[in-house]
């Protein structure tokens, strides 16, 4: 649980989310700590991505409310919300032929108006996002000519160019090899530490989630089964309850965070 002194960035109250008549999240209460990295973990189909979409107002709730620093996001103008909260959805799509620079520049749309379509600040934010994600050599390349990992970094750069205090990222390491996964997660950790950005992400890798998160939320069947500091909630019992998997939890010798070792009956008895 969160300390009573912890400031809250996003709150959900009795949140119910569904696709047509299929309810995925039912009457869920949730608090996302401000200035920390929160990671949603759980098995496929447990509601992680759905919850992220609900918090970003990409999916209209069937019931309940999401609050951004105390304000109901349903009542916020679209541009104001986009200046305060950025999201990278799972498997985003872009128009054919769009270059990396053009894609990243789209992150500046919320900051423009009829009187000022483009500014020097917009230019600097785009350049900084491209530099941060190490995409300078690809800036003028069409997005559809890049590898999966390079495309993912371009989408992350667009989200960074949006320059919001809160970032919601659905599987930001998708399509990335191990070295680039670490690069992206190190980048997000740096953004949190240096700029105090609140980051909420979905990860499938429990060990990476433990290593990079201040706050962990474990979901199963659309409900929260455990939440808190990774060191406090990641136990063999939690892994069994959430993932239906036997495991041993040891201390990661590098990060001093919980390290989950799955137990395979096949390997154990080989």
UniProtKB/TrEMBL annotation:
<keyword id="KW-0410">Iron transport</keyword>
<keyword id="KW-1003">Cell membrane</keyword>
<dbReference type="InterPro" id="IPR051535">
    <property type="entry name" value="Siderophore_ABC-ATPase"/>
</dbReference>
<dbReference type="InterPro" id="IPR027417">
    <property type="entry name" value="P-loop_NTPase"/>
</dbReference>
<feature type="domain" description="ABC transporter">
    <location>
        <begin position="10"/>
        <end position="246"/>
    </location>
</feature>
<protein>
    <submittedName>
        <fullName>ABC transporter ATP-binding protein</fullName>
    </submittedName>
</protein>
<dbReference type="GO" id="GO:0005524">
    <property type="term" value="F:ATP binding"/>
</dbReference>
<keyword id="KW-0547">Nucleotide-binding</keyword>
<keyword id="KW-0813">Transport</keyword>
<keyword id="KW-0408">Iron</keyword>
<dbReference type="InterPro" id="IPR003439">
    <property type="entry name" value="ABC_transporter-like_ATP-bd"/>
</dbReference>
<keyword id="KW-0067">ATP-binding</keyword>
<dbReference type="Pfam" id="PF00005">
    <property type="entry name" value="ABC_tran"/>
</dbReference>
<keyword id="KW-0406">Ion transport</keyword>
<keyword id="KW-0472">Membrane</keyword>
<dbReference type="InterPro" id="IPR003593">
    <property type="entry name" value="AAA+_ATPase"/>
</dbReference>
<dbReference type="InterPro" id="IPR017871">
    <property type="entry name" value="ABC_transporter-like_CS"/>
</dbReference>
């Amino acid at each position: 649980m969160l300390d009573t002194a912890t400031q809250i960035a996003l709150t959900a109250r009795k949140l119910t989310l569904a696709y047509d008549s299929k309810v995925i999240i039912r009457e869920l209460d949730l608090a996302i700590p401000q200035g920390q990295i929160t990671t949603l973990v759980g098995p496929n189909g447990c509601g992680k991505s759905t919850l992220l979409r609900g918090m970003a107002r990409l999916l209209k709730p069937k019931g309940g409310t999401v609050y951004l620093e105390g304000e109901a996001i349903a009542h916020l103008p679209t541009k104001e919300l986009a200046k305060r909260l950025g999201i990278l959805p799972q498997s985003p799509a872009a128009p054919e032929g769009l270059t990396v620079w053009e894609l990243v520049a789209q992150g500046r749309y919320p900051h423009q108006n009829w009187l000022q379509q483009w500014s020097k600040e917009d230019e600097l934010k785009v350049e900084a996002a491209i530099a941060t994600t190490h995409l300078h050599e690809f800036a003028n390349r069409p997005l559809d000519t890049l590898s999966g990992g390079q495309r993912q970094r371009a989408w992350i750069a667009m989200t960074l160019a949006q320059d919001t205090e809160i970032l919601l990222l659905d599987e930001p390491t998708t399509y990335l090899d191990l070295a680039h996964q670490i690069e992206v997660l190190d980048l997000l950790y740096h953004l949190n530490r240096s700029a105090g950005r609140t980051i909420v992400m979905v990860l499938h890798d429990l060990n990476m989630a433990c290593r990079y998160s201040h706050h962990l939320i474990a979901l199963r069947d659309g409900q929260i089964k455990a939440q808190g500091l990774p060191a406090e909630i990641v136990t063999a019992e939690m892994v069994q309850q959430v993932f239906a998997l036997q495991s041993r939890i040891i201390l990661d010798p590098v990060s001093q965070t919980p390290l989950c070792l799955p137990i395979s009956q096949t390997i154990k008895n080989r």
